[in-house]
Amino acid sequence: MDIRQLEYFITIAENGFNLTKAAKALNISQPALSKLIKNFERVEGIKLFTYNKGKLTGLTTAGEKFIHKGISIKKMYNEMYQELREANRCLRGTVTIGIPPVILTVLFGELIPDFIINNPDIKLNIVELGAYELKKKLLLNEIDGAILIDPVNLQNMKTTLIMNDSVSIFMNENHSLAKKKGALSLKEIHREKLMILNDSFMLTHQIRRRFDMENLHPNIFFQSGSWDLLINMCNKTNGISILPTPIGDFYSESIVLKPFKPNFDWRVVFCRNINTVKDKHLLEYVEEYFINFFNNKEQK
């Protein structure tokens, strides 16, 4: 278990065992949170939560002890991280991080200015390119690290999870599928006019692979490097788009989001070459800062 998983369990308890509220507070999907609980209890062979008709109702005796100690550990972790930040005030240098455009806009609008303000002696350069170009630059040591979507599938790379969310189906409120309750399958959408990101995005290749695995031939009507344009196309046409769920936070209620069944994970990772000649202490600090920024954001 890592500190992130511990935070998930504490947040569930703090939200009255309401998985919907806890998932929203943690910025992950409810199915992913439910799966994490089941996997933990199965692997560890212990029940943390009590259930009634499949729903969480409270903590077992073991769960109460676990959460109580977990809160103390979380506090110690935050204090340790704060001390680490203070100790690293003396770090200086330049770090170049590659970030795909969609991830940069959706997730890093607050982090980058926060980092610059709190680390005046570290120059942070951002390279904005698609995932495939960033992978090439990582291998050639032309950048120090990259924010990518898991799985990365590169040798000699260290990947660390930054955020775990999901991919959703976007459509306008008048679309016939918008009125359908619950999640949608690939089979239900493959004949629809699909408007997706262009082939420089890792998500697009993941989408194609999912359709191939089910022997489905999607009707890809339009592709673009701009998720803004894709959302506007959803608004103006009867097409649908497949995009990371957090993009939905930028739009009004006229856009409807539908989850996938089974769940379509969107795992954002910090990736760096383990053979880099860069100052590893500086790069590790930047990595830790990014990870903790999202951890702390989830706690608010």
From TrEMBL:
Pfam families named among the record's database cross-references: HTH_1 (PF00126), LysR_substrate (PF03466)
InterPro entries hit by this protein: HTH-type_LysR_regulators, LysR_HTH_N, LysR_subst-bd, WH-like_DNA-bd_sf, WH_DNA-bd_sf
Keywords on record: DNA-binding, Transcription, Transcription regulation
Homology family: Belongs to the LysR transcriptional regulatory family.
GO molecular function: DNA binding; DNA-binding transcription factor activity
Organism: Clostridium niameyense
Domain of life: Bacteria
Signal sequence interval, chain numbering: none
Nucleotide-binding keyword on record: no
The protein, known as: LysR family transcriptional regulator
GO cellular component, one term: cytosol
Domain HTH lysR-type: 1-59
